[in-house]
Amino acid sequence: MTLDNPTEPVKSEAKAAEPATPEKARAAKISMWGLLWRDKVALVAAAVLVALALVAVLGPTLVGDAATDQDLAAGVTPPRLGDGWVNWLGTDPLGRSLLGRIVVATQTTFSVAVPAVIISMVIGSLIGMWAGYHRGVRETIAMRIADVIMSFPSLLLAVVVLYVFSPSAANIVLVLAITRIPIYLRTARAESAELQSRTFVDAARTFGTRPNAIIRRHVFPIVLPTLLTVATLDFCFVMLAESSLSFLGIGIQPPDVSWGLLVSQGRTYLQTAWWLSFFPGLAIVVTTVSTTILASWVRIATDPDQRWRLTVPRSSRRKLARADKAAARRRARVGAATSTVQEKR
Amino acid sequence: MLTFLRKRALTSLLPLLLVLLGVFVLARLTGNPASLYLPESATPAQRAAFTERNGFDDPIWRQLLDYLGGVLQFDFGTSLRTGEAASTMALRAFPATLQLAAATMIIAIVLAVVIGSWAAYRPNSIADRISSFLSMTAASVPDFWIAIMGIYLFAVVLGVLPTSGTNAGALSWILPVATLAIRPVGVLTQVVRGAMVSALSAPYVRLARSTGAGDVRVVTHQALRNAAAPALTVAGDLTVGLVNGAVVVETIFGWPGIGKLMIDSIVGRDFAVLQAAVLLTAISIFVLNVLIDLGYALLDARVREKAKA
Q: Predicted ipTM?
């Protein structure tokens, strides 16, 4: 990162100076929904996440008692299609439907990951923007605290804390939120420190706007897209961390279930019933992969300079990228020529 | 060079002390180990004797001062479970984790550089898109799940690899290292690809091509050297994160490393061993960070000049 810095301001000036290409002008007119519709891979990822969110909210009521109903005679049935959805993913040794248990676990998993991400994002970005805007001692203290949290493996910290304060869902959310604060703090601080030296912030300051109002009206809207992208990616991390903790036995406690706990419980029956560990883990993978795909789409869609790339189908992007590179080279040549002319004058 | 090291040590000392302090206080909040180490039938007098012998009846600040005084004389306390010196136990477990981490990172870096460069050579080609998708998936797979599926496939179904332990020689390394390497390979491949795409379109690469240098030479001599810095940063973070993975993987595969030692000593309220292990981990992370900074200086002349100034 530090190595890129010397070239960065130059790049952004060149961007500001260059005329808007027809592609960019066209892309600016298309709504976010329109862009999402055009990128089918991102669309599928978004659809999967919406479906999972619906399952998390409505699932437990739809499944009803199927997740807890025991039927020892039907224990350890392998997955099979046909005769009702209950047996699609097989049953556990107590004859409970694995699909039903996964659906119920979806709610637990989301109700830990979503609050943890939101809490760490709000706290981290508020402190980060404040520290970056004011610079000086406030910045140093905030960054040192972030360093302390970051300097130690988060999972281990969570293990120690959860062992002390009994592993309840609220405590897991709290521990995960605290360990993830530095990510947002660093991002927000870096952007806000850069923004506070810009002319529009200077102008606001000259008119007597108070620091908090400047942060709210001028810094926050610009930092938000970056923070949202980071949050989307971090959702994966938090979900994986919760599953790891549950797997180690200090996360979600039975009789509640989360995906990580299901994998852990299935491990005992690995010899006889592979599906008990396989499907809950697959649910984790599907969720994290969809989130990652969507995050990389959001990153491009919220960047006015790259947005146009999403208006063309994936297959022809390669050609366009080549044309874009050639155009950049041409511009660079023209730029070099004009600057030498100016030097001669 | 020495001033740099000294500055680095001073700025890292505070976080290190804070982490140790936090673990010390938190560990003592888990309660008196007496209930865990003495039988149910122990008399109150026996409990009091145990508590007093181990110093758990002192106020917590007194315990902390005693401990820090001991640390300065390289006395890290004794284990409640085994009666051994805590430092001996931590140092014995350490090489197992270090070997695991080193093997993992070497494999991860080699794979990531090869796949990442290959994908970046033709951006948006079929090969690029396949490797992008695979690396993205690899970066978001839970390690414990991969470990269990690996055990199921290779140990239970095929029966070619051992399920756990270190007795089977080279074979027992395959599953733990593969499990640990999956996420670093995925993340690093993405980073190497990104850095190589921009390096390959840089003017110096075009210059090298115009002098008649072959494709392989351009990739290895020009592009890779310039793409190495961002990859090095991420590789460092991943190595620190490997301790997280080691806790899980060592527990699953019964690997006698520092991660397993820490989990065992938390559950067994073996404070001295936990503190020694935490301290050792924190110090090795510090050493790693210094090595990475030195790596930057090796790679980049600009950093070298700045360090001299």
A: 0.76
